[in-house]
Specification:
- The complex is a heterodimer of chains A (about 60) and B (about 475).
- Chain A is an alpha+beta fold.
- In chain A, about 15% of the residues lie in helices and about 25% in strands.
- Chain A has a single domain, classed as Ubiquitin-like (UB roll), CATH 3.10.20.
- In chain A, a hairpin with a 2-residue loop joins strand 1 and strand 2.
- The longest helix of chain A has 11 residues.
- With about 475 residues, chain B is of the alpha/beta class.
- Chain B has 14 helices and 26 strands.
- Chain B has a six-stranded mixed sheet, with helices on one face. A six-stranded mixed sheet of chain B has the order 6-7-9-10-13-12.
- The N and C termini of chain B lie far apart (about 105 Å).
- In chain B, about 50% of the residues are buried.
- The chains are: A alpha+beta (about 60), B alpha/beta (about 475).
- The interface between A and B is medium-sized, with 31 and 36 residues.
Chain lengths: ~60, ~475
């Protein structure tokens, strides 16, 4: 499925958690999977945990 | 005189009634924070004796001390009983130990479970309600439960867990219960859908007053109202608790609603009685539980144990082939002795979910080459053997995969491959099928494998060769 990580379409598997989507973003940007993630928010500005479930086309933002 | 004048000019105070709800979700058996939660709940109940305490599901899964007791989830249920929960809905993880275990959880719980979009076969014997109605200060509060369904029409769990449970889309079911709004002063949903789905529900069903949600592990840290419906969620693992206040006029009509979160994890005081219970659970012998026996010494053979893990993943999912990454095997020696739960979680401590991907033979070859580069070592495997050469720069070339039946892998044929979610997310390989979670972690797969094959001999399970 596609999710949008920092507004970038990112391919991940169905049923992925937030963490897997961000790691897929790291993969696509040749970043280390150990890159620190300080905070993740959803499209509504809520903080979300790395273990949270996401659905297709979800928008998440990390810094 | 002036004082009298001021007094007489004050408007008559309208009589209002308030209902207080504390809600939490996705506790995932983080029992260590339960004494903190108990302190917060006790403080709130001192101020608001009629407080309602709800859980929006996934009370379990995430801590073997809870999940692997002989009667799974006994610690969490006992703690929730002691803290005084009034209600819970089902989360997808409530099914993780099967329906017999869930039935025992419901029987042990001193609070009801609500879920309007699941029914169980009579033989299963699980008693739950689509909704409950509480009475507080003369007001009737209706609460309807619901659980998310994925594209396969099931909650996010392994389909094998579904037997005996029957699910319907919540949006189909909910209209059957909306008349409750007319007989109650407030109508709430207690859901395990995720925040974005809750927003969609709010937009379609404005008769609902509030949704206490879970599943997406979202922190809704202030009052959020969509289409007139307040939505709350308190992240996960007992880090926060949402405290909501609903105000009603003298006719019982709701005139205000608001919510705030309380950071449970930052509370200093632990309720001693609950801490004693947690200490007792943590001191038990769960991790010493024997789950299998190693019959032949595995002596500094990481591949042997990687092959064991891959076999477990393949058996758990029915895949044609399984691959286990080099860095995901955490020790290489296992003496001839009983294998304990501690051994399993030491060998595989990551709780990565298994992911099934349909891949062509060529995609598998490319995947193996990328894995070698990314993980600094070759993948271990099941359902096949493979050999390869290295070029001058250390890259894999001339990889040849032989299937379990002895035939070479067909580069054009599509195979069902299982790997862990770390590999699926991190390794940069081409694959048309994005893959689907198997709703099972790799360490769970290993425990299940050992239950079926209690005596193992993997001392010579060498399947990867550099030519």
């Amino acid at each position: 499925m596609i999710v949008y990580v920092n507004d970038t379409p990112t391919k991940t598997y169905y049923g992925a958690k937030v963490k897997s989507a961000i790691m897929a973003y790291f993969r696509d940007h040749n970043m280390s999977p150990k890159t620190p993630v300080k905070e993740v928010r959803d499209a509504y500005g809520n903080r979300i945990d790395l273990d949270g479930s996401i659905r297709a086309n979800a928008k998440i933002y990390f810094k | 005189m002036m004082a009298f004048g001021l007094f007489s000019c004050q408007p008559k105070q309208a009589k209002v009634t308030k209902v207080y709800v504390a809600s939490i979700n996705d506790m995932h058996a983080n029992i260590d924070n339960m004494p903190l939660l108990a302190t917060v709940v006790d403080s709130l109940r001192t101020l608001y004796p009629d407080l309602l305490l709800f859980s929006a599901g996934d009370n379990r899964s995430g801590n073997p001390i809870n999940d692997r007791t002989p009667q799974p989830s006994t610690p969490m249920v006992e703690l929730m009983n002691a803290i005084g929960f009034d209600l819970s809905c089902f989360g997808n993880h409530e099914w993780d130990s099967g329906l017999d275990a869930l039935r025992e959880v419901v029987i042990m719980s001193e609070f009801p479970y609500v879920c309007a979009n699941v029914t169980f076969d009579d033989t299963v014997g699980i008693q739950h309600n689509p909704y409950v109605i509480f009475e507080r200060n003369g007001l009737k509060i209706g609460v309807i439960g619901g659980i998310q369904l994925g594209e396969n029409g099931l909650p996010d769990f392994h389909p094998d867990k579904a037997a005996g449970s029957h699910f319907r889309p919540f949006e189909e079911v909910l209209p059957e219960y909306l008349s409750l709004r007319d007989e109650c002063n407030a109508l709430f949903l207690l859901t395990h859908f995720g925040f974005e789905d809750d927003v969609e529900l709010a937009n379609k069903f404005p008769k609902i007053d509030a949704i206490f949600g879970g599943h997406s592990h979202t922190l809704v840290d202030s009052t959020r109202i969509f289409n007139g419906v307040m939505i709350t969620q308190a992240m996960n693992k007992v880090k926060y608790l949402t405290f909501s206040t609903f105000t009603f006029d003298e006719k019982g009509k709701m005139i205000d609603k608001k919510s705030e979160v309380i950071p449970v994890a930052k509370v200093k005081n632990r309720k001693p009685e609950i801490q004693d219970m947690v200490d007792r659970y943590n001191n038990n012998e769960v991790f010493a539980q024997v789950v299998g026996y190693n019959d032949v010494l595995i002596d500094d053979c990481w591949e042997c144990l990687g092959s064991l893990m891959a076999d477990a993943d393949r058996e758990a999912t029915g895949a044609d082939m399984a691959f286990q990454n080099y860095g995901g095997v955490r020790f290489g020696t296992l003496e001839v002795r009983p294998i304990t739960l501690k051994d399993v979680f030491s060998l595989d401590p990551f709780d990565n979910e298994l992911v099934l991907i349909n891949m062509t033979g060529q995609e598998i070859i490319d995947f193996l080459a990328v894995s070698l580069f990314t993980d600094h070592g070759p993948n271990y495997c099941s359902g096949c053997k493979y050999s390869f050469k290295l070029d001058d720069e250390g890259n894999m070339k001339d990889c040849e995969v032989v299937l379990a039946n002895g035939k070479p892998m067909d580069l054009k044929k599509t195979y069902k491959v299982v790997m862990n979610s770390y590999m699926a997310a991190v390794f940069k390989f081409e694959h048309n099928d994005p893959g689907t979670t198997a709703f099972k972690t790799s360490n769970e797969a290993l425990i299940d494998y050992l239950a079926k094959h209690p005596h193992i001999n993997f001392s010579k399970a060498l399947r990867v060769t550099e030519r």
